[in-house]
Amino acid sequence: MEIDFHRESSRKKQRLEACHSGNVFVELKSAFRGILKTYYLKNGCDEVKDIALFLESHKVKLIELVNQQLSVNGAVKFNLVFECTYIKPLSEETQARAFKTKNKKILYDSSIDSIVKRMYRKISQEESEYLDKGSGWTLYKIDGILVRFSRYRPVRGSTYIPLPQIIENKKAVINPKNCFKWAIISRYVKGSHRERVNNRYLNLQNKFNFEGISVPTPLNQVKKFEKNNPNVSVNVYSFNESEDVYPLKVCDKELKEHFDLLLFTNNIGISHYCYITNFSRLVRSQITSHETQASFCKRYF
């Protein structure tokens, strides 16, 4: 991403002046009651001219900053903007450059180290491609790293909403009234009208450990439920406007107690979990016209 040097230099100057000491992240801006936050780390040593080395030397600080925002907000999105200045040695003409990454969402179970490594590779790749163009520019100095955070609210399973008729007709899903907890319990409820939450559900509510699982339940808390119950694995799916089912979260290995759940959202943004009783029946029509029982890879179907 190329930035006009004269237009951007005053903004960059303000950022650099706001950071009285280098090599530490300084909060520059907070908006919408902390929903948006911007931090800047100024390069404290102009002699450093290796971008990869500079980024790696500050990775621990960046991960600590991300973890700090994660602990406050529960889930965040963030991106990096790497700022530097290039020069043409003969003319001494300078140019501001910024290489930025896309927003990445971070949940409590995300591998922050892996995500930061991928961001670093993206920045280094863009810088390499820029130099390979043969424009004659040479890195003059590394200015710093800009980090922008925004609060992220994952999809939450909420109150009861009816299934679309085409999904309902497949007879492959139990749609209990209310929440994630009852979607899990519904697997063990016997008799007719299993969608009705009554004493049959209440008598089974201690079968699993739901400690720390909020209502409504955000998607990222499904892994927390798995950690609470070591023999449990959960896949979560949704469907698009064409009623085609697709995966949201698929575990690497199905354990002794395995659940396939359907998380869907209605047209006013209310989301809800259901228990999938027959995965093959639910997805078969979008894969094949045959009516016989079929097996599908739950991750890649």
What does this structure look like?
This protein is an alpha+beta fold and 301 residues long. The strands form three sheets. Strands 1, 2, 3, 4, 5 and 6 form a six-stranded antiparallel β-sheet that branches. It has a five-stranded mixed β-sheet with strand order 8-13-12-10-11. Helix content is 29%, strand content 29%. The model is unreliable at 1-6 (pLDDT under 50).
Concise description?
The protein is built from nine helices and 13 strands.
Topology:
Blueprint: H1 5-18, E1 25-31, E2 36-42, H2 51-57, H3 59-73, E3 76-88, E4 93-100, E5 104-106, H4 112-132, E6 138-151, E7 156-157, H5 165-168, E8 173-174, H6 180-185, H7 199-202, E9 217-218, H8 222-228, E10 232-239, E11 245-249, E12 257-265, E13 271-276, H9 279-287
Parallel strand pairs: 10-12
Antiparallel strand pairs: 1-2, 2-6, 3-4, 3-5, 3-6, 7-9, 8-13, 10-11, 12-13
Q: Mean pLDDT across all residues, rounded? A: 81
Amount of beta strand: 25-35%
| Class derived from helix and strand content | alpha+beta
**Helical segment count:** 9
Evaluate the radius of gyration: 25 Å
* Strand segment tally: 13
Query: Major sheet, described briefly?
Result: 6 strands, antiparallel
Share of helix, binned: 25-40%
List keywords for this structure.
single chain, 301 residues, alpha+beta, 6-stranded antiparallel sheet, 5-stranded mixed sheet, 29% strand, disordered N terminus
